[in-house]
Amino acid sequence: MSGATPAANSLYSDVIRDRWRRPRHRGDLPGATAVAEDVNPLCGDRVRMMLTIAPEGQISDARFVGDSCAICTASADVVADLVAGRTRSEAAALEVGDVLAVLQAEIRPTRMRCATLPLSVLAQALDGKARA
Amino acid sequence: MRLDELTRRDFPILERVVNGHPLIYFDSGASSQKPRAVLEAMNRYYERSHANVHRSIHTLGEEATELYEVARDAMQRFIGAPSREEVVFTRGTTDGLGLIAETIGRTLGKGDEIVVTELEHHSNLIPWQLIAKDRGAVLKAIPVRDDGQLDLAALDRLLTARTRVVAFAHVSNVLGTITLAKEIIAKARAVNALTVVDGAQAAPHMRLDMSALGCDFYVLSAHKMLGPTGIGVMYGRRAVLDRLEPGRGGSEMIKEVWIDHAQWNDLPWRFEPGTPPIAEAVGLTAAIEYLEKLGMDRVAEHERALTRQAMEGLSRIPGVTVYGPPVGIDRGAVVSFAIEGLHPHDVAALLDAEGIAVRAGHHCAMPLMRRLGVVGTTRATFSVFNSPDEVSRLLTAVAGLRSAL
User: Fold this and answer.
1) What's the pTM value of the predicted model, to 2 decimals?
2) By CA distance, what is A5's nearest residue in B?
3) Is the pLDDT of residue A4 over 60?
4) A68–B349 C-beta distance less than 8 A
5) What are the DSSP calls for A31-81, one per residue?
6) What confidence tens digit (pLDDT) does each residue in A71-97 have?
7) Is B215 a known active-site residue?
């Protein structure tokens, strides 16, 4: 990335920076059938995941909105990417490692919750027990 | 000689190199670094004098007790408390506020009112929420004006004959606002409400005088004022402490005990159950002596200059918003800011990559974040060892961040 400092390059992968600047799946999802929202108690970041799930269990669309840092935003974008087209149970089986593999970043322990928040919101949405 | 030139070599941790850069520590508002004098005093205590206090009839026990009580005298002097009996050691500000809330809480009834403020640290909010819920009391908050000051006109409307407690921060840990403590205390007193002041952010940076302030309670933490973690102080006005039942029980705080009742110990020990943080008290004494040697007025002046430099510099950088009272209004050594298009956590991570430690997030003040309309801020806080050159390096780093991600 042109404007990035060396420091930024070592901290944030190209994938994170790209998805932070241009998230593919950010925005509202009218008609979503499963919605959940949660916050990261450490920083107050908030992510809302919205899914459209067909009666037979296929996730046809996934989007997110939220106030979140680059890592969390990129992670939410990747999660939305990964679940679209999958079944409910396939989506529920997603793990942190799957997201980190796409992000191509070494997330430090202090920021790990930033990366995992979207996954836990996804789990809540799939559970259907979360506050919408 | 500038204060940082005088003190810098006293802080061993400042020799650290972080991510290839000399450490610039701008997070003293969360926890300050410690001068060698504090570390050595604690070490010396553990190597030579450690024992439990107050009931050990042997040489070490006497020495430990003496050292512990010397800390109380030092703290009495430091905060200008009328008597040593009013200086109660706690585990820190949060512990002190919890102790006060629990102790006063027992005297509250249904419909009694507690007034806090919109800029409180959660430590001065949640204990009151718990008490309000438990006692059926009502919790109200003084709003924050756009200039970062508390809205005292609103306070006039909030105070009623049912107001029992007014609890507020002396200095905001986010905005740096120095609240109008004397006015708030006078207004609270007019309706016979007790006043509780959270001094965590004030104690390290300004001269305190409990007699002049006139509050009923004042709490602070040692670890934000160059001392160790694990110890703090609850100052309580004697007339109030005398009539309150202790909120917490245990050893030390009693005179005589039967199975079904007990007679309380004298002040201040009545409010200090259990073995206290003794080594920490020793370290606190050293921290107080260190600050006194520098002079709190000089400390305040040094940090005021750094704060002003940071505020003016940050305000000039395109895309940067600085929160709190405007330049020219006195504030604590706290500057919160935002960079357009960057999340505070990313700002902090990028600055850390250049060896600059700042804090980012909600700063345990979520209601204030909501008032500001942000998720969080990036916050730089200053101490005696920080230099104008370090502030310049922060400004340069911030100016380069907008295109960093």
Assistant:
1) 0.93
2) B404
3) no
4) no
5) T-SEEEEEE-TTT--EEEEEEEE-TTSBEEEEEEEEE--HHHHHHHHHHHH
6) 999 999 999 999 999 999 999 999 999
7) no
Q: How far apart are CA B310 and CA B332, in angstroms?
A: 12
The domain limits of chain B are: 3-30+296-399, 39-292
Q: Does A4 contact B375 at a Cβ distance shorter than 8 Å?
A: no
DSSP state of B134: H
Q: How many Cα atoms occupy the beta-carbon half-sphere of A26 within 13 Å?
A: 17
The average pLDDT across B218-240 equals 98
Q: How far is residue B382's CA from residue B189's CA, in Å, rounded to a whole number?
A: 34
Identify from B19, B174, B351, B405 which residue to disrupt to test chain A contact, counting A C-beta atoms within 10 A and taking the largest count.
B405
Peptide bond into B12 cis (omega under 30): no
Reported confidence tier of residue B251, pLDDT bands at 50, 70, 90: confident
Q: Which CATH code of 3.30.565.10, 3.40.1160.10, 3.90.1150.10, 3.30.2130.10 fits the domain covering B3-30+296-399?
A: 3.90.1150.10
In CATH, the number for domain A6-127 is 3.90.1010.10
Contact B362 A44 (CB under 8 A): yes
What was the pLDDT predicted at A130?
A: 42
In this predicted structure, what is the pLDDT of residue A105?
86
Query: In whole angstroms, what separates CA B35 from the centre of its chain?
Result: 19
Parallel, antiparallel, or unpaired: how do β-strands B356-357 and B24-25 relate?
Answer: parallel
Going from N- to C-terminal start, the domains of chain A cover 6-127
Q: What is the ipTM of this complex?
A: 0.85
Q: Residue B236 in 3-state DSSP?
A: strand
Contacts of A45 in chain B (CB under 8 A): 343, 345, 375
| A43 — pLDDT class (breaks 50, 70, 90) | confident
pLDDT, tens digit (0-9, with 9 covering 90-100), for B309-326: 999 999 999 999 999 999
Class of domain B39-292 (CATH, top level):
alpha beta
Amino acid at B346: D
